[in-house]
Prior knowledge:
Two copies of one chain form a homodimer. Chain A has 15 helices and two strands. Chain A is mainly α. The first copy, chain A, has one domain: Farnesyl Diphosphate Synthase. The first copy, chain A, has a two-stranded antiparallel ribbon with strand order 1-2. In chain A, a hairpin with a 2-residue loop joins strand 1 and strand 2. The longest helix of chain A has 28 residues, at 198-225. Chain A is globular, with a radius of gyration of 18 Å. Chain A starts with a helix and ends with a helix. Chains A and B meet through helix 2, helix 6, helix 7 and helix 8 of A and helix 2, helix 6, helix 7 and helix 8 of B.
Amino acid sequence: MSFFDTLSKTASDIEARLLTLLSANGGAERLNESVRYSALNGGKRLRAYLARAFCELCGEEGIRALDYGCAIEMIHAFSLIHDDLPAMDNDDMRRGRPSNHIAFGEATAILAGDSLALDAFAVAGLNPYCESAQNAEAMILLSQKAGRLGMCGGQQIDIDGEGKGLDINELTRLVDLKTGALFSCACALGCIAANASEAQKQAAIDFGLLTGRAFQITDDLLDISSTPEELGKSIGKDMESEKSTFVSLLGEERAYKYAGECIACAKSKLAEFGDNVSKTELSEFCDYILIRKK
Amino acid sequence: MSFFDTLSKTASDIEARLLTLLSANGGAERLNESVRYSALNGGKRLRAYLARAFCELCGEEGIRALDYGCAIEMIHAFSLIHDDLPAMDNDDMRRGRPSNHIAFGEATAILAGDSLALDAFAVAGLNPYCESAQNAEAMILLSQKAGRLGMCGGQQIDIDGEGKGLDINELTRLVDLKTGALFSCACALGCIAANASEAQKQAAIDFGLLTGRAFQITDDLLDISSTPEELGKSIGKDMESEKSTFVSLLGEERAYKYAGECIACAKSKLAEFGDNVSKTELSEFCDYILIRKK
């Protein structure tokens, strides 16, 4: 198996498992539809891949991290729904389809995001392949990495910075919170599922932060070089809203070079783990971030 | 101590504890302010009271349920911020002050709600007075009672029902989810903190559902009989938006009678627990719901 095989296998495993986890009805039919519309969308499932890969890197079967992967993809889906809202980034398209609030209206989109954020915890908390103490640790980490001092804090810095201009330190902090926190969380969840050491968890968190930073840079580069058809979402939004990005602050060439440095540093963090096929694949994942086209 | 003394003591304990729990900075300053604005607002803290009272009813010190009480008040605060948004109930006032989105803008209000919902889990998960297995159970329950098949589902039914008219069964389902789920959760969290039996947890959940139903009826009655100054929020909204309520479906007299029946049934659920001062106070809490003026 190569990285792309495992990524594709993970995506279909996650899709199938989320379909089961989100199948319960009750509550409101329209909310159920709206939640499934955004959570079952055939995304790349990079975060779930990271959870699986780190679990396997630590020598345990990846299935132990499957429900943690579902939980983090639910948190990711929630963040995209709320980011797309008119009061936030006001994006009408997401993955080639109308965004949730275009398809279901704003009120339902807000509630669908809320529901996914809240329901993610029971999904992680009831992971049948892990002990109660592991599941508790997973839920606490999800909370800390997604909440006020994590992803949500990053999103707020992003909003506050529009039209104002951030310096490179402020931008790095923004990206580490908005993107890095959830990447880190995914890697650490894999370690938790495998009962890894604290040193390994820390290495996983560092790996997530660095790959998250590189991922954001290539995202910014794609935002100026790609087409909406290729990306499945609107482009040129950063420049339009005068957002500071690594590309606007450093220029394309230096930004890309910095992404490469982050990736080199991320790879060095894998030294904390023994050698196996997952280590090779995670190294390929690092390279993929630099060359991805969507 | 009477119910009112314990309620007032709980409110100040919760306010002080939330001040500590929400004191960490980092992230975005504006988001920190917005979160504290809504979470530290001197509310009645009925849900935290229920967690404390059920913990004491089961013979354990109430402080064991303090952080569970904080977590559920954070979830409650999140739900109020999002309910007040223009796309939802569009309320400009909350507890006698501008609602969060009036004070901080819509984007920050959405993120403040998201942050409170997410951060509540780490607060419950790190409760220092309980074991990891109890904290895991508490987080799972919070997730289930607040999410798609709980409070959020109820809010969606509420939105879908506007201008359409619900029958009494649909309305009961709405109220059980929108209000009862969190009341039930609060009562059960107290039981979890005290390591109560499954039968006691079930009785607590029933108690929460029944008192939640009665609470919603007196809320509807206050909405037509009170003034904005007395309530600290806008009134007459239900009639304006043609929402079905117990009062609109049954008339004031029969609605109030039904609230009394719910309260009588709720009191009977307390038979599952031994006699102590908390049982007397919870009985007073039941009476309070029927006579409250705000």
